[in-house]
Amino acid sequence: MEVAIFGVGRIGQIHLGHLVDERRVRVTYLVDHEPVHETIKDLTQKHSLTDVTILKTEDAHMAIKDEKVKAIFVCTPVGQKVELITKGLQSGKHVFCEKPISLIKDEVESCYKMANDHGLTIQCGFNKRFDTSVRQLHDKIRQGELGQLRMIKLTARELPGLTWKEYLLSSGGIFIDTVVHEFDLMCWLAGERPRYITSFGHTQNQLFEECGDVDGAVILLKFSSGLMGFIESFRSVPYGYDQRFEVLGSDGMTVVTNPKITNIENWTKDSIHTSPIWQNGLTRYTEGYREEVRHFLDVVEGKCECTVKGDEVLLVHLLAECAARSMREGRVIEIPN
To answer: Can you give the residue ranges of the Gfo/Idh/MocA-like oxidoreductase C-terminal domain (predicted)?
Structure first.
């Protein structure tokens, strides 16, 4: 299977690494702005890619029009995604797209409608679903091991990272940029649609404030079944990439804790020292990134249906909009059907 990658930055390089490990895949095109081409050449040497074509962004149509290319990976800044997705679908390509597909919900809906009309797949990059621990948590819930669900609590904290002004101004804000992962997990684990949402946010970083954004937020969701959901997201903590998930049911509780870099512990008479947790999402969710790519390739080959559904992606986008509105207006929002 021949594929093309559009956008060979941080996340594009992660997907490239997993694709070259797949014997069934040939990466035919790498497409990005010309200043990135030296980095791309280094990547081709690292992965021993001798027959890949490197294209400038303005020449992207060459990869899209190539009939041998069956699927494209869209890892560009958000403002470029819809055009690439649309042209890819029109040329008969299946599409893997990093979140968010667009900052405009109607554009996301149009992309999925076009994919459906053409009998093609768009898979949105919600990689956390594909982590083994998260999948096991999901399976426990579906099998009824926890009884009736009462609360789902998701913690997502990270080290200071993507905080330059240009990025923040184009990111769409904390809810569509980062909390979308937790919105996806919340609804996927709950197995139902939330009815109400309220959110609060604050920033201790002046740059976020200048960009009209926050670096910390808490969100409360209420479901028709009585289930309550709680999400906390902080984009600047000093100790690592903190991802903890807790589900409380009538018959018990299950917790997903932070995996550590190693399992080594040092014990003395005064203290116990353990390894630190992972420092960023690319290392914490290495397995999730790999498995979501494998799932997409299976979908393209017709082995299974895509488990990240379009209506789920649209619901996540709606929740991000409602959370932003709640924070802005200072009130509880009833989520539209």
So the answer is: 140-335
Distance CA 71, CA 305 (A): 15
Q: How far apart are CA 31 and CA 316, in angstroms?
A: 29
Domain boundaries, the chain: 2-125, 128-334
Token pair recorded at residue 168: 């923040």
> From CA 184, how far away is CA 199, in angstroms rounded?
16
In whole angstroms, give the CA distance from residue 244 to residue 224. Answer: 25
Instruction: Return the CATH class of domain 128-334.
Output: alpha beta
Please provide the distance, in angstroms rounded to a whole number, between the alpha carbons at the two ends of the chain. 39
- pLDDT tens digits for range 255-277: 999 999 999 999 999 999 999 99
Tokens representing 4 are 């093309």
Q: Which of 219, 217, 181 lies closest to 312, judged by CA?
A: 181
Question: For the whole model, what pTM was predicted?
Answer: 0.95
Q: What is the CATH number of domain 2-125?
A: 3.40.50.720
Strand 26-31 with 53-55, pairing: parallel
Would residue 119 be called left, alpha or beta, if left means φ above 0 and alpha means ψ between -120 and 50 degrees? left
